[in-house]
Each structure stands twice: as C-alpha cells, then as structure tokens.
Design a protein that fits this description.
Chain B: InterPro entries: Thiolase, Thiolase-like, Thiolase_C_2, Thiolase_N. Chain B: It comes from Desulfotomaculum copahuensis. Chain B: GO terms for molecular function: acyltransferase activity, transferring groups other than amino-acyl groups. Chain B: This is Propanoyl-CoA acyltransferase. Chain B: Keywords: Acyltransferase, Transferase. The complex is a heterodimer of chains A (about 130) and B (about 400). Chain A has about 130 residues and is mostly beta strands. Chain A has two domains: about 50 residues, no CATH class; about 80 residues, OB fold (Dihydrolipoamide Acetyltransferase, E2P). Helix content of chain A is about 5%, strand content about 40%. Chain A has one helix and eight strands, in the order H-E-E-E-E-E-E-E-E. The radius of gyration of chain A is 16 Å and the shape is globular. Chain B is α/β, with parallel strands linked by helices and about 400 residues long. Chain B has two domains: about 140 residues, Peroxisomal Thiolase, Chain A, domain 1 (3-Layer(aba) Sandwich), CATH 3.40.47.10; about 220 residues, Peroxisomal Thiolase, Chain A, domain 1 (3-Layer(aba) Sandwich). In chain B, a hairpin with a 4-residue loop joins strand 10 and strand 11. In chain B, helix 7 crosses helix 12. The chains are: A mainly beta (about 130), B alpha/beta (about 400). The structure holds zinc ion. The site of zinc ion has 8 residues of chain A, from loops.
Chain lengths: ~130, ~400
C-alpha cells in the first residue's frame, strides 16, 4: 500500500516552511507527524493537509546532560497544535538560564532546524523547533 | 491454560562489574537452576532480555551464547528479547505463556546488561535510541528528559507547585535508598537525605542527579515451570497469577504523558487474569527509573488516585512498614537498573519476599506481590502478579 505521506516528505515540507499532516476522511482527526493509519481511529483514508503551524507548550525540560552528538543545555518541549496533535521540538530563542517556569501555556509557531547526520541516524534529520510568539 | 509457577531465582550483585554479559547471566541463571533442583539439560527454552549488548560489548545474539555457556542442549531455542528497559519483563511473560500453553514444562527467563561499559555520552545516546528515531530523537531528547517532561506536566495538571512536587520526588529517592541499604545485592547500600537529592546537579529539569537511577551492570534469572511438576522442583513455589503487556507509540502521539496508557492496559490485564484488585496487593516492585516515574506508576497501577501518588510517599504509605511497600529492594534507584535485567530482578525480589527470605527488608506477611517494568518512551509496559 502506498504511504500517504512519508517522514521524508514531512521533512521536506518543514524545510519549505509548511507543516504537513494527514486528515482522516472518516473521523476528521489530524495525524501529525504522519503515519500509515489515522492516529485516532485507524482508518487508512487520509488526505494530506496543511496545518496552521501554531500551538502552545504543554510541557518541557531543559536537557543538561546531552547524548553524544548534542550540546547541552537546550530545551525539549511537547506542544499541542491548534488542530489537536502534540509535537516534540526544541524551544528556540530563549536563554535556558533565565527563569523558564512560565513556559507552559506559551503560544508558539512551529519551525524547524536541519540536523546533520549523527552516528546511527540513517542520514540527515530535521528537528521541529518552537518559536515563542 | 495451565497454572504456572516460579521454582528458583538468581541474581548477581548489581553495580559495576568486569564480568562479561555472558558470565553475568550464566552466574544468575545457574543460581536459579540449582535452586530449582534441576539439571541444565532439563531447561526447554530460554528467553533473555538484553538491550544494548552490541554497543556495550560488540555482542549481538547473546542468547544462544548464554545457553551454550550454561550447557543447555542444542535443541533448546534461546531467544533475545528487546523491549528497552522492559526487556526482562517481556521475557518472563513469554516464558509464562509458553508454559501456560502446555508447549514447555520448564523455561528459563531473565536478562543481562553491562551499561557501565559505555561512557555517559554514548550511554545517554543509546538509551535515547528507544525514542522515536524519525520525529523525536533529533531534538536531543534524553531518557531523563522524557520524565522531566512528565514531572512538569504533572505539576501543571494537578496544580502542584514544582517545589512541592520536587520534595515529594526527593522523598521517593530517600525511601528507596533506605530500602536499598538493607539489600546486599544493591548498587547503592547507603541512605541519603532530602538535601542530598535537592542539591544534586540538574540532569534534565526538574530532575536532578539523585532523581535518576544509575547505569548498572548485572543479571537476574528465574526458572518458570508448570504447576503440575512444581512439587519436584521446590517446596516453596511462587505462582504467576496474572500477566499483562501494553504498547504505545511516540511520546507526541501519547499526549498526556502523566497517564501511561500502556501501563494502565498491562495492569488491567494482569488484575483481570488474577481475579484481583489493587487493594489485594501486599507489595510492589515498580519501575522507578526516575523519582517521578514511581509516583505516576503507583497511580497507573491503581494504588492511589491520579495526582495523589506523591502525597502517599509523603505520608510514608509506600515505605516498608507502610500500607503498601513499594520497591522494598531499593528499586531501580538504589538497587540499580541493568536495563535488560530489571524485570527479572523485580521477580527475584518478589519471590524472595513472598518466601519470607528478605531479612531486614522483609515485608511482613506478604502473600501477593506485583511487578511493573516500563520500556522506552512509555511504550512497553509489563505488569505481573505473583502469589503464594
Ligand atoms: Zn480517523
């Protein structure tokens, strides 16, 4: 069966400034990032959709001990998009040594950054980023 | 389905070891086999949890090597099981199913890990390989980072100040170190103070070093047998009354990560099979890879209302001597967390507790115990109920 939207196509969308996802023709739920079935009901009739790229931070952490290939400190967060899905990304444009306690609930715009190939990463990657608005 | 029991158990000292993975497992397995009053050639299958043998020792396909080391016959299938930190829990559930089905009578299950063979950056990277590699790993998320996000969301959702939650989390560490101090096989056998936890370096906000379990080498094993023959193996059988396993996707797909749905599913299956409720459980070994992880696990398994697990710790309900002792072994926090072996080490502790062999850390009168092992980004959870 053909993939409705692959992770490479999702990345290419982000690089072109578009947040792509899938809208279920059965239940209307948005599935972001994409997968082969609807994240809510499991249906396979999915249509590529453009999301508005806006959301709010639901939770976050400041990574102080980083994995090989990353330089701490940096913020990792989960944001809830306006259309419903939650995405993981890095909060950018904020000094992590400032008080970050008020971050939950802040409105953000989804952007991206390209991550050069890591060991064991099957090539270049793209991380979602969140810009505070 | 046939009734299934545990005959013998074995476990190495947890901590830093210069033994190989094969040697660690064989030591634990031989203890389990010998104490089951059987010969190695009577074992009919091996399920072995191991997560990172390739990165630790350059060793893939460790299961048949362990089988051969033990002297198991060549017609014994030996299978490595990988479910991240839940690997040995998965292995025990597999052993249970094969025996319950009647296919085998005697199966060896367990796990092994040599995490300290990796330096911290490589260990942090390889542990994070259980995160979603397409959509989440590129953010640099770490395993402590996942539970840092659980903690921040928990405080926000239940309207707790972060300070209050952090103190409750620190009390989990203090309690588990207090328990671990009474466990001769624990990695850390030393009590700590609240201050030690709250002054330790930040790892992944709001988790500090003493909120986190250590990197650990170690192995544990159990002999699982049909209840029909258990009388020949031991006069102190411990029965597996219920098992459950749940699965979930990436963290983003799970949304509210204070509620670990794979755990709620696994615990639900185990209670249903056993015909028991949370109030029937006398002691628990659960997955306290981080202090907040113990709090959410104690809620997800049904012991406390959601949002009140920290309060229960504060009141001493989960300490030995409390209403429901949690992690009398010291848990992952103090006993140590050799990730591929942890589920089997939990089974080891519960079997010893139900047999009344735990000395200073004995939970008096315990008859029913429950284990809970979590793997990956809240993606695999195995819960098992044991009874005598
Ligand atoms: Zn749907």
């Amino acid at each position: 069966m053909d993939y409705p939207l692959t992770h490479r196509q999702f990345y290419e969308g982000l690089k072109a400034g578009e947040l792509l996802g899938l809208k279920c023709q059965s239940c209307g739920t948005y599935t972001v990032p994409p997968k082969i079935t609807c994240a809510e009901c499991g249906h396979t009739e999915l249509e590529i959709a453009r999301l508005n790229g806006m959301g709010k931070i639901r939770t976050f952490t400041v990574i102080r001990v980083a994995p090989e290939g990353f330089n701490a400190p940096y913020i990792v967060a989960l944001a809830e998009l306006d259309e419903g899905p939650w995405l993981m990304g890095n909060v950018e444009g904020l000094d992590v040594d400032d008080n970050v306690d008020g971050l939950i609930g802040r409105k953000v715009r989804v952007d991206h950054k390209v991550i050069p190939p890591l060991n064991y990463s099957a090539g270049e990657g793209v991380a979602v980023t969140f810009q505070l608005v | 389905m046939r009734k299934v029991a545990i005959a013998g158990v074995g476990m190495t000292k947890f901590g830093r070891s210069d033994k190989s993975g094969v040697e660690l497992f064989a030591g634990a397995a031989m203890e389990a086999i010998t104490s089951s009053n059987i010969k190695t050639r009577e074992v009919q299958a091996l399920f072995l949890g191991n997560v990172l043998g390739d990165f630790e020792e350059g060793q893939l396909n460790i299961a048949p090597l362990c089988a051969n080391e033990l002297g198991l016959p060549v017609d014994v299938p030996a299978t490595r099981v990988e479910g991240a930190c839940a690997s040995a829990g998965v292995a025990i559930r597999e052993a249970f199913i094969w025996v319950a089905s009647g296919y085998y009578d005697i199966v060896l299950a367990g796990g092994v890990e040599r995490a300290t063979a990796m330096d911290t950056p490589l260990a942090t990277r390889t542990f994070a390989m259980s995160s979603e590699s397409r959509y989440e790993v590129f953010t640099g998320v770490t395993f402590p980072g996942v539970f840092g996000m659980v903690a921040r969301l928990y405080a926000d959702k239940y309207g707790l100040s972060l300070q209050t939650l952090k103190e409750q989390m620190a009390m989990v560490a203090v309690k588990n170190h207090k328990h671990g101090a009474k466990n001769p096989l624990a990695q850390f056998q030393k009590e700590i103070s609240l201050e030690t936890v709250l002054k330790s370096p930040m790892v992944a906000d709001p988790l500090q070093l003493f909120d986190c379990c250590p990197f650990t080498d170690g192995a544990a094993a159990i002999v699982v047998a049909s209840a029909d023959i258990i009388g020949k193996l031991t006069d102190k059988p411990v029965y597996i009354l219920g098992v459950g396993q749940g699965s979930n996707g990436s963290l983003g797909r799970q949304k509210d990560i204070t509620r670990i749905k794979a755990r709620e599913a696994a615990a639900g299956q185990a209670y249903k099979m056993a015909g028991l409720r949370p109030s029937d459980i006398d002691l628990v070994e659960l997955h306290d890879c981080f202090t907040i992880a113990e709090i959410v696990a104690s809620e997800g398994m049904g012991f406390f209302e959601f949002g009140t697990g920290g309060k229960a710790v504060e009141k001493g309900e989960t300490a030995i001597g409390g209403r429901l002792p949690i992690n009398p072994s010291g848990g992952l926090k103090a006993k140590g967390h050799p990730i591929g072996a942890t589920g089997a080490a939990q089974a080891y502790e519960i079997v010893k507790q139900l047999r009344g062999e735990c000395g200073e850390r004995q939970v008096d009168g315990a008859r029913i115990g429950m284990s809970d092992t979590l793997g990956g980004d809240l993606a695999t959870v195995v819960d098992i109920i044991y009874g005598v």
